[in-house]
Amino acid sequence: MTTTIYILNGPNLNLLGQRQPEIYGHETLADVERRCAEVAAEKGFSVRLFQSNHEGTIVDQIHEARQAACGIVINPAAYTHTSVAILDALNTFEGPVIECHISNVHKRESFRHHSYVSLRADGVLAGFGIEGYELAVRRICSLCAGG
C-alpha cells in the first residue's frame, strides 16, 4: 500500500501569501508543502502537493491518485462551488478525502456556502488557515493507518 498523500489545490492558490493576505494570510504554498511534509513524515507518510488553475488538470491528478495515493487533501478553491467534474473524479477514488479551505467559507459570500466536493469528502476543514492542511494530513494518516 502506498503511503503518499496527495494535496491538491485549485485556482489562484499559486498566489497564496500574495493574494488577499487579510483573508488567506502571508504564508505560501511552499510553506504548506513543507509543514505538511513534516507532519506526514512523523507518521511514516509522504506528501505530493499539486496546484493548478485548470479544472481538467486537477481531475487528471485525482485519476493519478487512484493508483498512487492512500488519501487526498483537496482545496479546490473556486471549483468547490462549481465543479461536478471534480466531484465525479473524487467519487472514483477509494481512499479518504478531506476537503480543506483556508478561510471560513461560511462567513463569506453566500455562493461559497455550497460545496460539490463535500458530497464526497470524509471531512471538511474551513477557517483554520494553512494549519487546516496539517490537520487534514494528520487525519488522512490516521485513516490510512487503519485508525
UniProtKB/TrEMBL annotation:
Q: Where is this site: Transition state stabilizer?
A: 19
Question: Which SUPFAM superfamilies did the record assign?
Answer: Type II 3-dehydroquinate dehydratase (SSF52304)
Q: Which UniProt keywords apply?
A: Amino-acid biosynthesis, Aromatic amino acid biosynthesis, Lyase
* A Pfam family of this chain: DHquinase_II
Question: Which pathway is it part of?
Answer: Metabolic intermediate biosynthesis; chorismate biosynthesis; chorismate from D-erythrose 4-phosphate and phosphoenolpyruvate: step 3/7
Q: Which InterPro entries match?
A: DHquinase_II, DHquinase_II_CS, DHquinase_II_sf
UniProt-annotated binding residues for substrate? 75, 81, 88, 102-103, 112
For this protein, what reaction is catalysed?
3-dehydroquinate = 3-dehydroshikimate + H2O
Q: What is its EC number?
A: 4.2.1.10
Tell me the active site: 24 (proton acceptor), 101 (proton donor)
Extract the CDD domains matched here. DHQase_II (cd00466)
**Assembly and partners?**
Homododecamer.
Described purpose of this protein according to its UniProt entry: Catalyzes a trans-dehydration via an enolate intermediate.
- Family of the protein in this entry: Belongs to the type-II 3-dehydroquinase family.
* NCBIfam families xrefs: aroQ, PRK05395.1-2, PRK05395.1-3, PRK05395.1-4
Name listed for the protein in its UniProt record? 3-dehydroquinate dehydratase
Q: Which organism is it from?
A: Cereibacter johrii
